[in-house]
Design brief:
Layout (H helix, E strand, L loop, with lengths): L10 H30 L4 H11 L1 H25 L3 H37 L3 H19 L1 H13 L4 H22 L10 H26 L14 H31 L5 H17 L1 H20 L2 H28 L2 H4 L6 H14 L3 H17 L3 H22 L6 H31 L4
């Protein structure tokens, strides 16, 4: 499969073609959590709350993985745009080297301090114990995210998205097969409960990443996987980190906001945390189309920025914002009309259903704003400056964290109060993101026409 030249041809066609594959791949990846959640829900609300609390660590690992993946994608895409194959190869080699080191650190920190983290988040002792059990089995899946992110970003920068999507599908099928066997003991009579959920995800994730490593050289023609080239080069690591670190900080803030919200509602009990956990996971799956469009926009804009095509860079954002907003508006209407249809497959408990449906109905008012935030974030990555994206995320931490802490200690506070504060904070973030992107486009493209 050849590397795709994204510096010519219809921008909307490039966006839709790549977003279709990326979106399907993201949907498949999300199924890891949803499949586990479906079977774990049969174990009771404490199991759901525990798995949700432990799965929140995924945001922290995802944040750290941006250090490698965002920097690699931006630098490789721009190198491809300016036809610099040597620099593209060097960036890929060092991104993979960084990812392997990060995977090792994740395992060490997770097994050493994971118990303390989930204990803080959990509503009670039983939930905390189940969260820790799940995390121990889930940590290999978290660690393997780093090399998977490096490989996936390199392929996406080269315009290759179909092959990774197929491998993700196969890994999710494996996870779906293993989940009922390991969680509830189908065919074995040895149910492992929440530990089985984490173990199923870990086995499937590791298998999928190994397959991607073995097939990498066949999926594209520009970059080569050559293990002796992985010897660390500090200067190249710093180039990658200069772009990836602010993006990593941005995702870390997302994790902190999620963790703070989970902590803030702990006094409402396990039903509330379970309902929020289900609602937030459904919401994440709803975000996938907008994320896919933003992920597609980044390599398109990056290659064109490297090639000096300023008009096509601007056009990429314009089309990404319009398409993303239209998709998210449609999904908003769905959540306003029948959010219960999205919740019922995951729980039969009325109290948990009420929390989850109420959450989706209110939080859906910020879906269009979220789509704009994703589109802007993808453009900042393409332009090689992710600091503005970090600043817009930091604004949300301020506009949400302070009111949430105040609400958590205020008598008479209701759950939906937290949801409304979240909607307001995301709206502010979207407005700031658009303003910062307009400034960045002017600074970076004014000299290019």
């Amino acid at each position: 499969m050849a590397t795709r030249d994204l510096t010519s041809g219809s921008i909307p066609r490039h966006l839709m073609n790549m977003a279709a594959f990326i979106g399907f791949g993201l949907a498949v990846q999300t199924l890891y959590v949803l499949v586990d959640l479906y079977f774990v829900a049969r174990l009771g609300e404490h199991a759901v709350a525990g798995v949700t609390a432990a799965a929140s660590t995924m945001f922290a690992v995802l944040a750290a993985s941006q250090l490698v993946s965002v920097g690699a994608l931006s630098l490789i895409a721009r190198a491809i745009g300016r036809k610099d194959q040597g620099d593209a190869q060097t960036i890929f080699d060092q991104a993979l080297s960084m990812s392997l080191a990060a995977a090792l650190v994740t395992l060490i920190l997770g097994y050493a301090f994971g118990d303390a983290l989930v204990t803080i988040l959990a509503a009670d002792g039983e939930t905390a114990a189940l969260a820790h059990t799940y995390l121990l089995a889930y940590l290999p899946a978290l660690a393997i995210m780093f090399p998977g992110a490096a490989l996936g970003s390199a392929l996406r920068a080269a315009g290759v998205v179909a092959g990774p999507m197929v491998l993700q599908c196969l890994s999710v099928i494996l996870n779906a097969v293993l989940a009922p066997v390991l969680i509830v003991g189908w065919g074995t009579g040895l149910p492992l409960g929440v530990a089985g959920a984490g173990l199923a995800s870990s086995i499937a994730s590791v298998a999928g990443t190994i397959a991607l490593l073995l097939l990498f050289n066949r999926l594209q023609t520009l970059l080569r996987l050559h293990l002796p080239s992985l010897r660390p080069r500090l200067r190249t690591w710093l180039r990658i980190a200069a772009i990836g670190l602010p993006a990593s900080g941005e995702f870390l803030l997302i994790f902190l906001v999620s963790a703070l919200l989970y902590w803030s509602i702990r006094s409402f009990g396990a039903d509330a945390q379970a309902g929020f956990g289900i609602g937030s996971r459904v919401m994440q799956s709803i975000f996938l189309p907008a994320m896919a469009i933003a992920f597609a926009a980044s390599p398109i804009a990056g290659q064109n920025f490297g090639a000096g095509h300023a008009d096509r860079v601007r056009g990429t954002f314009r089309h990404a914002a319009l398409i993303g907003s239209a998709v998210m508006l449609t999904l908003t209407l769905l959540c306003q009309i029948r959010p219960d249809l999205l919740v019922h497959p995951f729980t039969e408990q009325a109290a948990v259903q009420r929390v989850a449906t109420d959450y989706l109905r209110i939080i859906s008012w910020n879906f269009v704003a979220v789509g704009l935030v994703f589109a802007c974030s993808g453009m900042f990555q393409a332009l090689g400056n992710t600091i503005p994206s970090l600043l817009s995320s930091a604004s949300r931490f301020v506009t949400f964290a302070l009111p949430a802490i105040w609400l958590a200690g205020r008598p008479g506070t209701e759950l939906h109060d937290f949801w409304y504060v979240s909607v307001a904070s995301v709206t502010v973030q979207a407005l700031l993101s658009v303003l910062l992107l307009r400034r960045e486009l002017h600074l970076k493209l004014s000299a290019r026409g």
